[in-house]
Structures are given as C-alpha cells and as structure tokens.
Amino acid sequence: MASGTASESAAELKLFGMWASSYTHRVQLALKLKGLEFEYVEEDLANKSPSLLLYNPVHKKVPVLLHAGRALAESVVILQYVDETWEQNPIMPRDPYERAVVRFWCHFCDDKLAPAVGTVFRSTGEEQKVAVGEVHRNLDLLERELREGHFMGRRFFGGDTVGLLDIVVGCGSYWLSVFEEVAEVKLVDPTTFPLFHSWLRDFEAQEAVREIIPPAGRLLEYARGIRHYLLSLAPSQHDAAAAAAAAPGDANDGGGTGAGVDGANVAASTGTGEEDKKDC
Ligand SMILES: N[C@@H](CCC(=O)N[C@@H](CS)C(=O)NCC(=O)O)C(=O)O
C-alpha cells in the first residue's frame, strides 16, 4: 500500500474539477477530511482542456486527481486511492465485509438512485411521475437500511463520522432539494424518509461539507437554466440528449444524486446549448 503524509503530498496534488459537479465535490471533501492541500483547476466542460483529455482519455470527465504526476479518474476510485494513500482520518472501514458493503451501496447510489433522479430532472408529466416513484423506491431502500438494516443506529453510514459512503451519497443529495424546487416535485418527504432526511441534514451541517457545497441559490440558478434548456429541445433532440444522458459510461455516468450534472452533460454533448449550459 502506498503511503503519504499531508505535508509531503500537498504540492503534488492537483484536482481537475467543475464547480457544480457533485463528483468533484466528493473528491474535494475527501481531501479536506484528510487534511490534504491541493491545487484546484476549474474545467470548462464545453471546452475541455488538453490536460483533462490527456489525463482522462477514456471518459474525458472530471474529476481527475493528479498525484505526483500520476492521474486518477472516477470519483469512487479516487476516494479509495486517497484513503489507502493517506491513512489519517480513515473514510473506509477496516473490516473487509464492511468495506464490501460500502462499495455495494456506492454502486447502488451511482447505478440506481442517481439515474432516477436525473430522469426526474429532465422530464415532465407521466415520465417524471414514473421517475419520482423510482426515486422514492430507492430512497425507501436506503431508509430501511438506516432503520433496521446494516446502518441501523449509526449517525453516519461511516459510523460516528462521515465515511466514504456518506461522501458518495451526500455529495449530490443536496441536489434533491434543488430539483424539488426546479422540477416542482417532492423527493425527500421527512415523514416518509425520516432517517434519510435527518442524515442528510446532519451531513450538510458538517463544517467540511458546508465549505464545499456551492450556495443553494447558485445551484438553483444553474439547474433552472439546464432544465429550461433541456425542455426547450425539439422532441427528436430531446430524445437524443436523453439517450446520451442515459448511456452507461457516457454522458450520464453515475448521473447523480449528482444529476444536476447530468442535464449539463446533455447540454455539453449536444453542443447546442448556451455557453453557460455547457459547463457540466
Ligand atoms: N463516474 C464519474 C462521473 C463523472 C462525471 O459525470 N463528470 C461530469 C461532470 S459532473 C463530466 O465531466 N462531464 C463531462 C462530459 O460528460 O463530457 C465519476 O464518478 O467520476
């Protein structure tokens, strides 16, 4: 296992990200929790830098972390690397079974919850109703885990402190309230999902998290622009954009509880949006 110290690596860490990207926030939060300093490079996703294309030639997405000149892509991969390299303030459990459970729910978040949230964001009418139902079913699964399953009785998924799964589910879950407002739906009813709701409030109240999540007003404005753009597309363009957004490993890779990012990915992939709609 590689090992590093905060001071030794500070000058050698560079993060390529995008301000509204929940995947970027995951890495920023993990680095902060570890007490690591890094250089941050903001990417324009409508006009990706040669560095981003060089360091992530497969997906061409942020985040990318450069450590001593070596590039890492995919947020969950990066989080695990960071935890294995800098052992202070661990974000993964030590026990192999516990570690596997964390990975399982990370996949659940990126493969099931996030795409459903993305569909709510970019649809209306019946399609949106179906997607809201899917989000609720997925939140119910998490609620059950918190109530009587693996995470029963824990303050955070990671135990008493924020762990890797909290980072993955939490960075992006703040989009849920943004989407509720922008798409005029109810996603996290505190009476239906009391444990998830209070977990999310607790997560958002953490100092490190507050320092990373952009102001709600900025996220709202951004999401409004993207949704407006998506809904303004002709049905044929919309289908193509939605298909691009749904393509695994492509524009909606993980979608999101970071689904605000999806819409933006669509805008970027169609290349027809206004400049500020192409960011992420
Ligand atoms: N699975 C990836 C998803 C990363 C992702 O979707 N990044 C978006 C920004 S939030 C991106 O770079 N999009 C640019 C594009 O799709 O061209 C991860 O976990 O890092």
UniProtKB/TrEMBL annotation:
Q: Which GO terms describe its molecular function?
A: glutathione transferase activity
Which InterPro entries does the annotation name? Answer: Glutathione-S-Trfase_C-like, Glutathione-S-Trfase_C_sf, Glutathione_S-Trfase, Glutathione_S-Trfase_N, GST_C_Tau, Omega/Tau-like, Thioredoxin-like_sf
Q: Transferase: is it a keyword of this entry? A: yes
Q: Which reaction does it catalyse?
A: RX + glutathione = an S-substituted glutathione + a halide anion + H(+)
GO BP terms in the entry: glutathione metabolic process; toxin catabolic process
Name the UniProt key words of this record, in alphabetical order: Transferase
Tell me the ranges covered by the GST N-terminal domain, including all copies. Answer: 11-90
Record's Gene Ontology CC terms?
cytoplasm
* Biased segments, Gly residues type: 252-261
Q: Where are the transmembrane segments?
A: none
This enzyme's EC code(s): 2.5.1.18
Q: Which residues form the GST C-terminal domain?
A: 95-226
Say which domain of life the source belongs to: Eukaryota
| Endpoints of the signal sequence | none
EC supergroup of this enzyme = transferase
Q: Transferase: present as a keyword of the record?
A: yes
Which Gene3D superfamilies does the entry link to? 1.20.1050.10, Glutaredoxin (3.40.30.10)
Ranges for region Disordered: 244-280
* PANTHER family with a match to the protein in the record: GLUTATHIONE S-TRANSFERASE, GST, SUPERFAMILY, GST DOMAIN CONTAINING, GLUTATHIONE TRANSFERASE
Q: What is this protein called?
A: glutathione transferase
Instruction: Please name the source species.
Output: Colocasia esculenta
Lineage of this protein's species?
Eukaryota, Viridiplantae, Streptophyta, Embryophyta, Tracheophyta
